[in-house]
Amino acid sequence: MRLTERHPEVNLERLLESFVPPPRFQGATFATYRPDPRYPSQTLAKERLRSWIHDRPKGFLRPRMPGPQGVYLDGGFGVGKTHLLVAAYWEAPGPKAFLTFEELTYTLGLMGLREGARRFSALRYLFLDEFELDDPGNAQMAAHFLALTMEQGLRVATTSNTPPGALGEGRFNAEGFRHQIQSLARRFAVERIEGEDFRHRDPTRLPRPWMDGELLEAFRQDPRPKTLDPFPDLLAHLRALHPIRYRYLFLGVEVVYLQGLEPIPDQNDALRFVHFVDQLYKLGLELRVSGVPLRALFPESYRHGAFAKKYGRALSRLAELLG
Asked: Does the first or last residue of the chain, that is N or C, have fewer Cβ atoms within 10 Å of its Cβ?
């Protein structure tokens, strides 16, 4: 079976229903969150987020929800932000949705801003993971979307590695969009989460891909539902699919084999592969690859440019998938 033979379609009527925490985070609850006692902000963020979820409307004639309409969990990699966001999703009353900010931008691109805002406004809670502004188009769209939906009463919780007032810095001329960014930031109460990356992974030591012969032999011996694709063919296939469809490529699959990893010279292809890796990771699937070392996949200029955090996240997730 090959991923390149799959051409999944998207049902817009059911798309919002599919935005739930992925299998990797099924066990992420407030009860299973273990704050590091060295960093009190972790416990504080947990308590404040849980309290926010259990807010109830105040007032008699025109009841309103108390407190902030949005909560923004700001912190570095591996401090438990996504765990807390998923935990909040499980306890929040519906209707609700959980998705990454990147998935939101792809969804709005597919539906259109107004139609997307109309559909999301019907929810009570929206949980957005990995909020980041990589380009001016995203800045403008995010500001308009949140204005349209939050004015209708939508409550939003999000995670990010960047404080809200600094969104976009180093990625594009953020000064030209300072008004949108500041108006966006004012909608959220910020919970800063300090701490160390719980994975404690050495970023300079990445797993070695297999040799082609090893990979093909492992594929032949593997009894599980699986796919095998040459890496260049996969990149070409991803170009032909809207990124929101990537999540549906893996239906019925438990392990993905990719043959012949090679450097990705085109940044658009590189970003598509990053989103592909994100979907693999969140679904909790296994990955087996052959080809060049992981560090050679993305040119050095990419890993220090506007999308540096995306590439860093992809390498970290690839290392975990292959480890």
From this structure: C
Q: Which of 76, 109, 90, 104 is nearest to 33 (CA)?
A: 90
Q: For helices 101-111 and 113-120, give the axis angle rounded to 10 degrees.
A: 120
Count CB neighbours of 61 within 10 A.
Answer: 4
Establish how many alpha carbons lie within 13 A of residue 190's alpha carbon, considering only the half-sphere containing its beta carbon.
14
Segment holding 129, helix H or strand E: strand 125-129
Question: 178 CB contacts (<8 Å, ≥6 apart)?
Answer: none
Half-sphere exposure of 322 (CA within 13 A, CB side): 22
- Round to whole Å and give the CA distance between 22 and 14: 16
Q: Please name which of 180, 92, 99 lies closest in space to residue 135, comparing C-alpha atoms.
A: 180
DSSP 124: S
- Give yes or no for residue 33 having a pLDDT over 90: yes
What is the Cα Rg of the chain in Å? 20
| C-alpha distance from residue 214 to each of 209, 219, 254, 260 (Å) | 10, 9, 19, 12
**Digit-coded pLDDT (tens) for 168-217:** 444 434 444 455 556 677 788 888 999 886 655 555 678 999 999 999 99
Domains defined along the chain, listed by start: 33-193 (3.40.50.300), 201-322 (3.40.50.300)
DSSP strand pairing (155-160 vs 125-129)? parallel
- Is the sign of the CA dihedral 5, 10, 11, 17 positive or negative? positive
| Cβ–Cβ < 8 Å for 67, 153 | no
Dump the DSSP string for 262-277: -----HHHHHHHHHHH
